[in-house]
Design a protein that fits this description.
- The structure holds two protein chains of two kinds.
- Chain A is of the alpha/beta class.
- Helices cover 39% and strands 17% of the residues of chain A.
- Chain A is built from ten helices and nine strands.
- Chain A has a seven-stranded mixed sheet, sandwiched between helices.
- Chain A is globular.
- By secondary structure, chain B is mainly alpha-helical.
- Chain B has one domain: Glycosyltransferase (Alpha/alpha barrel).
- Chain B has 13 helices and seven strands.
- In chain B, the strands form three sheets. In chain B, strands 2-1-7 form a three-stranded antiparallel sheet.
- In chain B, strand 1 and strand 2 form a beta hairpin.
- Classes of the chains: A alpha/beta, B mainly alpha.
- The interface between A and B is medium-sized, with 25 and 25 residues.
């Protein structure tokens, strides 16, 4: 089945979102619109600075100007994948122009503009590749058919930094393709994809693997968009909801991954 | 992570700098100065906080072997013994006391914490004897309804943070088995329990009736319950009622990236533009105490953010020794809590929180 989908992105130079739209196109699916959240929104900038402090600045630069670096100089799962798939970098705006796809920059995915695009596109589903928390108007416009790739096992590890939390508490690193509903990562599970952990892997390299596996999982899910989507697992919201991991625990997770001891 | 400083190294540096500042606060006058003010210099010593700084110094000694922390703790204890009143209580306020100084419930209890710590550390009975007399005074003056009346912080107002009085009383009870002390502590705890609102707030947990409470006294209230629950081995009565508030504080700590607003009203709303640093690290301690019972690294993460934010507000390389390693009352320093001052209790709780966090991370790493 060839699906008709709208894709969201947190910023215009998001490489994983670019890979997603391109691979959907190559698989014969119809990308009926792209929604990109403006990085210049004051509320968003303030939230980012409050959450990450000064470390938000390089992150912001990478989002605005596509200055993203590979996880390591030797190997980068995401960049290797892009090379294998012959996907050059660039912006979603340029890709949309090249393929005559509506591209809209919005302040939030919950803005009327964003909701209108989803309705106008007549999409069977929205594929989420970033852009913040979704509220009822957008979920309603998509008739509850919003699909996401989450970087941890669901419903066991919901929320932020799911990969880091998985490593820290000893859950097998997993990408979950799931439905977004009104809860936080509580929607029905479409597919669970184990993340292969190899010697030398770091959190950054595993994050890139997450992105690759997430893109591949979403492309597979596009073939299923005409079918009923799975329902919310019972008791999903009773499972742990995680927040951004504190740096000391992230260091500990990194050490655990490397099989080392206390971070000193 | 090669080439970068690990967070644990950063914590070690802040711990040492803060401990050194605490040592500097111990003036030749015997006790630890209540605060350093850039405008007025070091204050007079404060018996109340001198008391609860003692266990901090003793806890730090094995980790900071090169610093004379244990001798300092013993000398603070001697000073407190020298100013204990014949009734067994201690006076409120700074030392030397003003003419209007009265025997103080809260201050006496915090000093008990130091006395018990010294007894547990040295096994010398004179520390426990002093603690017994102080605890007896508290028990004898605690009324049937769990209030203290005249010896309260303010006449006619019995704040909910007096749970922080019950905890040291129960520490004495554990050593002496004086049932009157335990009974009085439980009366006071039950009185505060009756003030719990459905949203987890304990009414009047601030310095003033009906006013928004600093996170400092919110954390006092919760910690008093948590530690009492552990000492009495009764989580359902005294620990469980704090969970709603602790969960709120976890979410708020995450939302504000470790910089909680300085005050909250009874609806958990705040219009404070500053953060109360000691309140932040005291909340971190509450989360770590809770986590010790209910293993959940998310609580450790929230506590770490509160500690990180306090470290970020601290200057540990300042050329001014009186500021180097100090912890401000508020951030910014001109915030409403301890305006333009560096209180010794902020440094004490920062040390406690750093130490507890480092121990927890080390345990997790094993």
């Amino acid at each position: 089945m060839k699906g008709r989908v709208v894709v969201t992105a947190g910023y215009d130079r998001a490489l994983h979102a670019l890979a997603l739209v391109e691979l959907l196109r190559r698989a014969g699916h119809d990308v009926a619109g792209i929604l990109v959240v403006s990085a210049f929104r004051v509320k968003r900038l303030k939230a980012l600075l409050r959450q990450r402090g000064r470390s938000a600045l390089p992150l912001l630069a990478s989002k605005l100007f596509g200055m993203r670096r590979a996880a390591s100089a030797d190997a980068s799962p995401l960049f290797d994948f892009l090379r294998r798939e012959s996907i050059a970098g660039g912006s979603l705006r340029a890709w949309a122009k090249a393929h005559d796809v509506p591209h809209r920059v919005v302040g939030s995915l919950n803005d009327p503009d964003a909701v209108a695009l989803v309705r106008e596109a007549g999409a069977q589903a929205v594929f989420y590749a970033g852009g913040g928390i979704l509220r009822k108007p957008l979920l309603d416009a998509a008739a509850g058919r919003v699909v996401n790739a989450h970087s941890g096992p669901l419903p066991e590890i919901r929320g932020m930094n799911a990969l880091e939390w998985s490593i820290l508490i000893g859950e097998p690193p997993t990408v979950t393709i799931h439905v977004i509903d009104a809860g936080i990562d509580t929607g029905g599970v479409i597919e669970k994809i184990p993340i292969p952990v190899e010697p030398g892997d770091t959190i950054e390299s595993l994050r890139e693997k997450c992105e690759v596996l997430g893109v591949q999982g979403l492309v597979r899910a596009a073939a299923l968009v005409d079918r009923p989507l799975p329902a919310r697992p019972p008791g999903a919201d009773a499972h742990r909801q995680c927040f951004v991991m504190a740096p000391v625990l992230r260091e500990l997770a990194e050490r655990k991954l490397a099989g080392r001891g206390v971070p000193r | 992570m090669s080439g970068t400083t690990s967070r644990m190294d950063i914590y070690s540096r802040h711990l040492e700098a803060t401990a050194r500042w605490l040592l500097r606060s111990i003036a030749t006058k015997g006790g630890s100065a209540a605060y350093f003010s850039p405008l007025r210099g070091w204050s007079r010593p404060y018996p109340e906080t001198t008391g609860y700084i003692i266990p901090t110094l003793l806890d730090l000694q094995p980790r900071l072997r090169e610093l004379p922390l244990e001798p300092a703790a013993l000398s603070l204890g001697e000073w407190l013994l020298s100013i204990q009143q014949p009734s067994g209580a201690w006076l409120g306020g700074l030392h030397p006391p003003s003419r209007s100084a009265r025997l103080s419930v809260f201050n006496t209890a915090q000093i008990l914490d130091g006395m018990v710590a010294l007894y547990e550390h040295t096994r010398q009975s004179r520390w426990l004897d002093a603690a017994k007399r102080g605890a007896r005074w508290l028990a004898d003056n605690c009324k049937a309804d769990g209030t203290w009346g005249e010896a309260s912080y303010r006449k006619g107002f019995e704040p909910s943070y007096y749970t922080q009085v019950c905890w040291p009383m129960l520490r004495v009870w554990r050593q002496t088995q004086d049932t009157a002390v335990r009974a009085a502590a439980e009366r006071a705890l039950r009185r505060v329990l009756a003030r719990r609102l459905p949203n987890g707030v304990f009414e009047d947990w601030g310095f003033d009736a009906g006013a928004p409470a600093f996170t400092h006294t919110i954390a006092y209230t919760l910690r008093g319950f948590l530690e009492s629950a552990l000492l009495l081995d009764d989580w359902s009565t005294y620990g469980e009622p704090t969970v709603e508030a602790l969960e709120r504080l976890v979410k708020l700590s995450e939302r504000y990236a470790g910089r909680l607003p300085g005050t909250f009203d009874d609806a958990w709303t705040s219009n404070s533009s500053y953060t109360c640093l000691t309140g932040n690290v005291q909340v971190a301690l509450c989360l770590l105490v809770w986590e010790a019972r209910n293993t959940d690294l998310r609580l450790v993460s929230a506590a770490a953010k509160l500690v990180d934010a306090t470290c970020a507000a601290q200057r540990i390389t300042s050329p001014l020794a009186s500021i180097r390693g100090a912890v401000g009352g508020s951030a910014p320093l001109w915030g409403r809590y301890m305006v333009m001052q560096y209180p010794n209790w902020a440094a004490k709780y920062h040390c406690d929180a750093l130490l507890a966090l480092m121990r927890r991370v080390e345990t997790e790493a094993r």
